[in-house]
Write a structure and sequence with these properties.
Distance between the termini: 6 Å
Number of helices: 5
Strand content: 25-35%
Oligomer: single chain
Structural class: alpha+beta
Helix content: 10-25%
Order of helices and strands: EHEHEEEEEHEHEEEEHEE
Radius of gyration: 17 Å
CATH class: Alpha Beta
Shape: globular
CATH architecture: 4-Layer Sandwich
CATH superfamily: Endonuclease/exonuclease/phosphatase
DNA sequence: ATGGTAGACCTTCTA
């Protein structure tokens, strides 16, 4: 069972790129972020043609997340619990009904820039809601994965030029502490646990030749519950996807679990 | 200190 996460930066602008990668990598489950469209404009048929079931939580212009799965998707939840007034589409969860079911939450954590604004406060509040939700899921004692664009650089080693990110919401002590608080619930980060370079970058800005200069950061992560971590056998960052035609600024990260 | 690029969409916002 291969579970991928990928911020595609508009699923419609990126459709041919995304389809080409899916044909190549053939993951069983994909968490997509920044689809940047409402549900009705999501190109579901194109993914169904590749054998995927689709669950979407879309939004006009910004954000938007989706789940693709070669197995049925059950018990779908749209939106992160904890704030009924939150209208941003950044979380979708479902149970993947394979031979050994696994719950998958796909998330697009708020960027939070610039710091000192309501956007940064929203980021931290969202992270606390995510921590609480993960704590609730742990009580169910089941295999689950929380995968997505966390918009957090956990450690200096996760950036080519960490000092350049000191004033950025992605590298603030508060952001990093909230990320660790999530981890310290007892979750295992897939990358680095099973062979992959633990600090391999997952994002390179479109600007200033960041990709050509390898000015990357590691901000896309998969957190595993204890029962999922027991089944984890591999985690691969698909760096090559950044060199594709019309690339996203993020690349897919794929974790493999025993069936 | 600034600008560089990309996407949605209508003019500026987000990243």
């Amino acid at each position: 069972m291969q579970i991928a996460t990928w911020n595609v930066n508009s699923v419609n602008a990126r459709l041919e790129t995304v389809l080409a990668w899916l044909r190549l990598a053939e993951p069983d489950v994909v968490c997509l972020q920044e689809i940047k469209c409402i549900d009705e404009k999501f190109p579901a048929e194109a993914f169904e043609c590749l054998g995927y079931n689709v669950a979407v939580h879309g939004q006009k212009t910004y954000n938007g997340v989706a789940l693709l799965s070669k197995f049925p998707i059950e018990d779908v939840r749209r939106g992160l619990p904890g704030d009924e007034s939150d209208e941003q589409a950044r979380y979708i969860e479902g149970v993947i009904a394979s031979s050994r079911p696994i719950r998958v939450g796909g998330l697009y954590l708020p960027n939070g820039n610039p710091i000192g604004t309501d956007k940064f406060a929203y980021k931290l509040a969202w992270m606390e809601r995510l921590r609480r939700h993960a704590a609730d899921l742990l009580k169910l004692d089941e295999a689950f994965v929380l995968a997505g664009d966390y918009n957090v650089i956990p450690e200096p080693e996760d950036a080519d030029n960490p000092t350049g990110w000191l004033g950025d919401a992605l590298f603030q002590p508060e952001s990093r502490a909230a990320w660790r608080a999530l981890k310290y619930l007892g979750l295992t980060e897939a990358q680095g646990e099973v062979g992959e370079n633990p600090h391999a970058y997952t994002f390179w800005d479109y600007q200033a030749g960041a990709w050509q200069r390898d000015h990357g950061i590691r901000i896309d992560h998969l957190f595993c519950s204890p029962l999922a971590a027991e089944r984890l056998t591999a985690c691969v960052v698909h760096r090559d996807a950044r060199a594709m035609e019309k690339p996203s600024d993020h690349v897919p990260v794929v974790a493999t679990f025993t069936d």
